[in-house]
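Priority: medium. Attachment 1 of 2:
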């Protein structure tokens, strides 16, 4: 798109405030801001940030939960030509300090009790600095967003988007995620994660109504869909599982007929769960995307396609993907190897790391560490991350496959599978279970007997009370493994 066809995020918000001032922009619980209110409020917050020296090109760390203030603050940052750098509002002090140092952020917008070497400010602190809500000079952020990731090393890194904070001057009828301006987008996932943050960013640029939930609750999500007449919903597989585990009579109480598009991503979805949602919501409306925050390449699949290519995450829609063996040679369809991606020919870089180095092959290929294969029709299937693979007596075992099988059991809330060292086999499979109702190890063994070959079945089980996955459905297997090795370096 030509430069004169694009405008800054700040200019786009002013445009919406002028042409649809009373349309709802963002809601959370009982609080709603119109586009005119969001425009004025973000102007005020931006001026508050200026008093702390925030300027064009800065990264501003944003550590708020899902509240209206999160969206206000993000737009205030963009209006100064700066970049929102979202983080979890639960970060411990050491991790917060490490990320702020990487970002060199002038301030942190959050409610932490930590004392670090940068000001930690609330939205109220910033609005108190100025009562001027008039327009600011236009500024384009050179980087649209800068989410964080722990990566395979466990050390934080920043992933700076390769795109500036620009959006089409003319609001398109259809966005890249099948989202129209007249729609209502429901985001129950925490916006400090890349995908929900990106969805909020695109939805407000389109002038849609963004509804965020302060925390995910399965029945409350269905109630919000019905009450808001949500047309577009973002979920992760953990959320889908918890919704599906509701009693059937509870799910049936809610009218979901307004939903035109349900996107899920961020983690592998067990096939049984995916199929259940496809038949419940409608094949053409359940959509899946596979990509990294780095966004070199993207696959997309509809529910209808998935029914014909069960287990796939789709065909490549943006950029290129290929499967490579350990010797660095490309593999043919049907063979499992490491997934490498590269951006479309001639296009600018889609990201830049701060605090990490990408894993590359010649000719621009980059890996995020995932394992998979393509079928003869060009559909991609994921196995697992190479860092999480368990080598059991010479056989490759992928935790995600075992986790998906265990999560089919109605008593299992969530599960994480890790490898523990074994003198005989090299490693053994250990399953960590968070149960929703009483279940025994013998019952789970019987459940897996008909589902997995013997060497993939866990040798040991552990039952815990705490959640194993975060709100985005992600599990840190490396941290779980490390904690158990510290307790028992040589498990039986």
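Attachment 2 of 2:
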């Amino acid at each position: 798109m030509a430069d004169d066809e694009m405008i800054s995020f700040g200019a786009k918000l002013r445009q919406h405030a002028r042409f649809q001032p009373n349309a709802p922009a963002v809601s959370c619980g009982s609080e709603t801001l119109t586009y005119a209110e969001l425009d004025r409020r973000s102007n005020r917050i931006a001026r508050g940030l200026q008093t702390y020296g925030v300027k064009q090109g800065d990264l501003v760390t944003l550590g708020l939960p899902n509240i209206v203030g999160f969206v206000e603050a993000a737009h205030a940052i963009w209006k100064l030509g700066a970049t929102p750098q979202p983080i979890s509002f639960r970060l411990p002090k050491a991790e917060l300090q490490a990320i702020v140092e990487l970002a060199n952020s002038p301030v942190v917008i959050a409610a932490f009790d930590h004392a670090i070497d940068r000001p930690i400010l609330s939205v109220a602190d910033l609005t108190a600095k100025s009562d001027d809500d008039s327009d600011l000079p236009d500024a384009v952020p050179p980087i649209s967003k800068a989410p964080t990731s722990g990566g395979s090393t466990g050390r934080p890194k920043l992933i700076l988007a390769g795109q500036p904070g620009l959006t089409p001057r003319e609001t398109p009828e259809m966005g890249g995620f099948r989202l129209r301006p007249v729609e209502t987008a429901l985001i129950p996932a925490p916006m400090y994660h890349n995908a929900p943050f990106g969805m909020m960013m695109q939805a407000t640029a389109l002038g849609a109504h963004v509804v965020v939930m302060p925390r995910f609750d399965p029945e409350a999500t269905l109630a919000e869909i019905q009450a808001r007449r949500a047309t577009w919903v973002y979920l992760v597989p953990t959320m889908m599982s918890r919704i599906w585990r509701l009693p059937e009579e509870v799910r049936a109480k809610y009218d979901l007929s307004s939903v035109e598009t349900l996107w899920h991503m961020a983690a592998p979805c067990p096939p049984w769960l995916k199929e259940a949602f496809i038949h419940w919501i409608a094949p053409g409306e359940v959509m899946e995307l596979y990509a990294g925050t780095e966004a070199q390449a993207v696959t997309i699949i509809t529910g209808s396609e998935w029914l014909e290519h069960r287990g796939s995450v789709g065909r490549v829609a943006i950029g290129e993907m290929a499967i490579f063996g350990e010797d660095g040679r490309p593999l043919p369809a049907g063979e499992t190897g490491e997934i490498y991606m590269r951006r479309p020919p001639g296009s600018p870089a889609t990201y830049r790391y701060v605090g990490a180095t990408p894993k590359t092959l010649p000719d621009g290929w980059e890996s995020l560490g995932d394992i998979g294969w393509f079928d003869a029709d060009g559909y991609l299937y994921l196995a697992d991350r190479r860092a999480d693979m368990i080598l059991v007596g010479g056989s490759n075992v992928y935790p995600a496959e075992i986790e998906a099988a265990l999560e089919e059991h109605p008593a299992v809330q969530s599960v994480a599978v890790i490898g523990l060292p074994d003198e005989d086999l090299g490693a053994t499979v250990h399953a960590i279970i968070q149960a929703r109702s009483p279940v025994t190890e013998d019952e789970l063994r019987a459940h897996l007997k008909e589902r997995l070959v013997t060497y993939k079945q866990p040798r040991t089980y552990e039952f815990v009370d705490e959640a194993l996955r975060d709100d985005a459905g992600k599990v840190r297997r490396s941290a779980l493994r490390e904690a158990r090795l510290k307790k028992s370096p040589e498990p039986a």
